[in-house]
Design goal:
Layout: H1 2-19, H2 25-55, E1 63-66, H3 68-86, E2 89-94, E3 99-104, H4 105-121, E4 128-135, E5 141-147, H5 154-160, H6 170-174, H7 181-190, E6 195-201, E7 205-212, E8 217-221
Parallel strand pairs: 2-4
Antiparallel strand pairs: 1-3, 3-8, 4-5, 5-7, 6-7
Helix pairs in contact: 1-2, 2-7, 3-4, 4-7
Length: 234
């Protein structure tokens, strides 16, 4: 980890320094590409480390009571660029006065961001992506991401659930990724004793349910919030 991160952080520092100098448009484009590529490598390294630590049950959780309404709202802002570019209808359906979740906030955001990123990536322009949060009958709490994207058959779903799995679709090839998003989200959910269910149909979309057990649900009700805005671009 140290041997990989140190030179990459050094490269980012150098890019930032050079960016402060007068540059032509072409030079600026080259530096932007170098920055994005280096940041992508850092993200990949961090994802691999998180996945390995989670699988080895060595991932340390900083647990506290978190408000899912706020977490969803903050995560929406992380994907609003792609949402706006594709004209996707991104919305939240969160149970009113939902209790807090006892969890590591950074890891919950990581789970949600990975699921949201996949949903937005594989949803065609003008499609829909919805985040849901509700209490289950047994006292647990469900966090779900559903989309109207390209969907997967049984074989493709098996590939998507594997580490570095890349489903062989044209749309997938046009949106390159590491193939770690879904496996990492599942492993991070496991660290919270949550179960993950992936439901997908070819050409109809995908839904991922992350179900947290009752002992992860606060006995107190969260304060009421105004409904989250629908991030729709016409």
């Amino acid at each position: 980890s140290h041997e990989l991160r140190t030179p990459l952080n050094g490269m980012l520092a150098m890019v930032d320094l050079v960016s402060e100098e007068p540059l032509t448009d072409r030079q600026g484009d080259y530096l932007d590409t170098a920055r994005r590529s280096t940041e992508d490598l850092l993200t990949l390294i961090n994802d691999i480390l998180d996945l390995s630590a989670a699988e080895a049950q060595q991932l340390h959780l900083c647990e506290a009571e978190i408000d899912l309404n706020r977490v969803v709202s903050e995560t929406f802002r992380m994907v609003d660029g792609d949402v706006a570019r594709k004209g996707i209808d991104l919305s939240a359906d969160i149970m009113p006065n939902l209790p807090g979740l006892l969890a590591d906030e950074r890891r919950i955001k990581q789970i949600l961001l990975n699921l949201l990123s996949n949903a937005v990536k594989f949803t065609r322009p003008a499609g829909q992506v919805t985040v849901e949060a509700l209490l289950l009958d047994g006292g647990g709490l469900r966090l779900a991401v559903a989309d109207t994207g390209i969907g997967m058959d049984t074989e493709e779903l098996e590939i998507a659930l594997s580490r570095f799995g890349q489903v062989g679709q044209t749309m997938t090839r046009d949106h390159q990724g590491t193939g770690l998003g879904l496996p990492l989200a599942i492993e991070l959910a496991k660290t919270h004793s949550a179960t993950t269910e992936v439901i997908s149909a070819k050409g109809k979309g995908t839904r991922v349910n992350v179900d947290f057990p009752p002992n992860r649900v606060s006995s107190r009700q969260a304060p009421r919030h105004r409904p989250l805005p629908r991030l729709t671009v016409v």
